[in-house]
Amino acid sequence: MSRYLDPEESTKPYKDPTPLPADVPKVKELGVTSAPLKSAAFFLGAYCKDYNEDFMLCKSENRDPAHCLKEGRRVTRCAQDLITKLRENCLAEFEKHWNCLEYNNQEYYHCRKDERVLNKCVFEKLGLTKTIPGTPEGKTPIHEVKNPVFTGVQK
Amino acid sequence: MSTPFRQDMPPPGGFEPVKYKRNLPLRGPSGLVILGGVTAVCAYGFYRLGKGNLEKRELQREKVWSRIHLVPLLLAEGDRDAYRRQQAALEREREIMKDVPGWEAGKSVYNNPRHRSSESIVVI
């Protein structure tokens, strides 16, 4: 009786047979694919710094998934919040940048033009800047270099 | 039949002068120029290579940090799912072993409180 049932062909909507226990508060999962996440990564790091660090400190205390559920929910809610704000304020720029990433092997250096527009918009609307930790002192961060060696091929 | 006598003479205007000077036509740029040119091209290439290497390092740093910023988010999501599976497995074990007296569901085989992820999961 263990026949494979394609969820696409199912008439009933999928119901999780083993949901989370009822005493754990529900949180909507982010449901964002890799390219938008990569596009928003540095803003996420800046916007949710406190929650992220709290969560990682908690994880370093104990690797048990049950130990940091509360902190994890905060991280996810913060990310939800940021993505919503990004979509409210800079929808066109955001979509353009992550589509560029999607089509260019998810490499930042192919999409500098769209990235600068997005960074400018996010800075003006949300006040978040992209900073790469560990960049050598006194050097231009790689995303602001005017004439880089590595650029998109034939574009 | 006899031809009249004729003295063999130089061509009119005289013989052309004897070519005794060395004839060496120009054969392209000198070795020194070629050597210099090749050196210059190589030097520029190595300069670009060095620049590119420095830039590659920064690009790698950018990529790594973009991933580091996403770790807590993905880990939190994965943890919720791991916790759900853990609880479901516990429930199943309790149901299966309910007739065995003294059975502790979910008890680790190791005498160590450190968390270990389960060796097998039920994909549902």
Provide the descriptors you would attach to this structure in a database record.
heterodimer; A: 155 residues; mainly alpha; 5 helices; globular; B: 124 residues; 53% helix; mitochondrion (chain B); NADH dehydrogenase [ubiquinone] 1 alpha subcomplex subunit 13 (chain B); electron transport (chain B); transport (chain B); respiratory chain (chain B)
What does this structure look like?
The complex is a heterodimer of chains A (155) and B (124). Chain A is globular, with a radius of gyration of 20 Å. Chain A contains five helices and no strands. Chain A has 155 residues and is an all-alpha fold. Chain A has a domain at 32-129. The model of chain A has no long low-confidence stretch (mean pLDDT 91). Chain B contains one helix and no strands. The longest helix of chain B has 66 residues, at 31-96. The interface between A and B is large, with 51 and 37 residues.
Strand and helix order of chain B: H
The total count of helices of chain A amounts to 5
Unreliable runs of chain B, pLDDT <50, ≥5 residues?
none
Q: Ends of chain A: how far apart?
A: 56 Å
Outline of chain A, from the CA principal axes?
A: globular
- Per DSSP E runs of 2 or more residues, the count of β-strands of chain B stands at 0
- Alpha-beta content class of chain B: mainly alpha
Characterize the overall form of chain B.
rod-shaped
How many DSSP-defined strands of chain A?
Answer: 0
Counting copies of identical and different chains, the oligomeric state is heterodimer
Total number of helices of chain B: 1
Largest interface: A-B, 51 and 37 residues
Radius of gyration from the alpha-carbon trace of chain B, in angstroms: 47 Å
Give the N-to-C terminal Cα separation of chain B. 127 Å
Q: Give the strand content of chain A.
A: under 5%
What is the structural class of chain A?
mainly alpha
Task: Please give the largest β-sheet of chain B.
Answer: none
